[in-house]
Amino acid sequence: MKRLLLAFFFTGLLGFGAAQSAEDKPAARPNVLFIAIDDLRDWVGYLGNKQVKTPNLDKLAARGVHFTHGYCASPCCNPSRTALLTGLRPGASGVYNNGDDWRKIVPEGTVTLPLHFKNNGYYVVGAGKIYHGGLNRLSDWDDYLNERGRGNEDDPDGKARGKGKHQANEGWDGVGGIRFGPLDCDDKDMTDYQSVSYIVKKLGQPQEKPFFFACGLHKPHMPWSVPKKYYELYPLDKIELPKVLENDLDDVPPAGIAMARPNGDHAAILKSGRWKEAVQEYLATITFSDAMIGRLIEGFDKSAYKDNTIICLWSDHGWHLGEKQHWRKFALWEEATRAPYMWIVPGVTKPGGVCNRTVDYMQIYPTLCDLAGLPVPKQVEGESIRKLLEKPDAPWAKPAITTWLYNNHAIRSEDWRYIRYANGDEELYHNSMDPLEWTNLAKKPEYAKEKEELAKWLPKVNKEATGGNGKNPEKKARKAQKKAATP
Ligand SMILES: [Ca+2]
Ligand SMILES: [Ca+2]
């Protein structure tokens, strides 16, 4: 109760909205524009990537506070999103992989983020990919636009994936599971375009209640297939490959090598001679996503809610493009775990804020509650980062924690990354000296103290995995999709 009162007090101080009337009505709650991007790693201009073109994300980041060290709770769509949206780390929910249906697994009484806002008088609307595909729960929302054009109980899974040009099999090419290839279509033919249009339309309507609008972009998830014009921005002869150490895996223990799968995607890419092309196609797809963010923010800026709406933008995890001979997410290193993450909060953040503290997405749920003056549901594990939004260089002692599959964790502090696998294998990187994580120091006795300190943060709760582990979730999903698309 005390927390609630305090929250009300601070919300009042911020002067959100202008509803403090003579009858002493509580101040209007701020609106929320919640933006989820799928599979966008740290390749954005504002985080220092030199070849990518992300003018809209760069502009948006400059309007508030962006985090240079924001990390996912899990490097995989479903566990990352479930952790963020339930406030429960994978070990606490048992949701470790894309095959784990969070709706059946999370502890009873778990209140999800959108539902919590809905229960507290918000008008809660979503579009695109917020929960992982097929695992949406329509009762969390007042309205939802799925891939078919509408969320409804007859089509809760958005099974229509594959009907739009963007999802059709035409134009897909690539190397094994790394799928890419330009599309002969317009932006308008893309699901993400429709999701943005839907949210912009909602922003243009008068709203009686405070709102929580969630816009989930599917790209730059594979296939890296977007309209041709985006590829033309990245001539193949100018593409730079990521900086990779050839024998980087020599000091990585067996559990880490098993995650890297050097004989899988990476071997196939090398054999094909198409590494640069793959990088080009990822870059093109990122710029498409950036253009969609540009449309969304343009619509937002024209709306009546520009000055009383919190923007929280995140990508669900990172991506490897050959670093550690690994491709995709599904690993515990920097490339797979770090992703773009920013907040624009009227009355709290100032333009140009840069926060270098290590934070993970477990803080999003409690921070949104804090900023909106809502109580924090019991199950939520994280704590509000409000003080970092107010003052980006404020002290923050916590590391970011990422879990991939059962009981494998990475602890990322400002200087170090410590990885402990379920079988006891370890890696330790001195990130402030070795940002590409090339030298594993875990076996060096002189760093025993650092390891011990970092190990204190290892999650204590590691619920047994219920299923979905050990299989390649994307392959499984693709098979199912193909089957569904066959008449
Ligand atoms: Ca993802
Ligand atoms: Ca190495």
Q: Count the helices. How many?
A: 15
**What is the helical fraction, as a range of percent?**
25-40%
Show unreliable segments: 1-23, 151-170, 469-474
Number of strands: 18
In angstroms, what separates the terminal alpha carbons? 57 Å
CATH T-level fold name: Alkaline Phosphatase, subunit A
User: How would you sum up the major sheet?
Assistant: 8 strands, mixed
Radius of gyration: 22 Å
Helix and strand composition category: alpha/beta
* Residues in β-strands, percent: 5-15%
What is the CATH class?
Alpha Beta
Strand order of the largest sheet: 5-4-8-1-9-12-2-13
In short:
This protein is α/β, with parallel strands linked by helices. The chain is 30% helix and 15% strand.
Description:
- The structure is a single chain.
- The protein has a single domain (2-13, 29-245, 273-400), classed as Alkaline Phosphatase, subunit A (3-Layer(aba) Sandwich).
- The protein is 30% helix and 15% strand.
- It has helices at residues 2-14, 55-62, 77-86, 90-93, 102-105, 113-119, 191-203, 254-260, 262-272, 275-302, 334-337, 364-372, 386-390, 448-455, 473-485, and strands spanning 31-37, 65-67, 70-71, 123-128, 143-145, 173-175, 178-180, 211-217, 309-315, 320-321, 327-328, 341-344, 353-355, 359-360, 400-403, 409-412, 416-420, 426-430.
- The strands form five sheets. The protein has an eight-stranded mixed sheet with strand order 5-4-8-1-9-12-2-13, sandwiched between helices. Strands 15-16-17-18 form a four-stranded antiparallel sheet, covered by helices on one side. It has a two-stranded parallel ribbon with strand order 3-14.
- The longest helix is centred in the middle third of the chain and has 28 residues, at 275-302.
- The protein is globular and about 60 Å long.
- Residues 1-23, 151-170 and 469-474 have low confidence and may be disordered.
- The protein binds calcium ion (2 copies).
- One calcium ion binds next to loops.
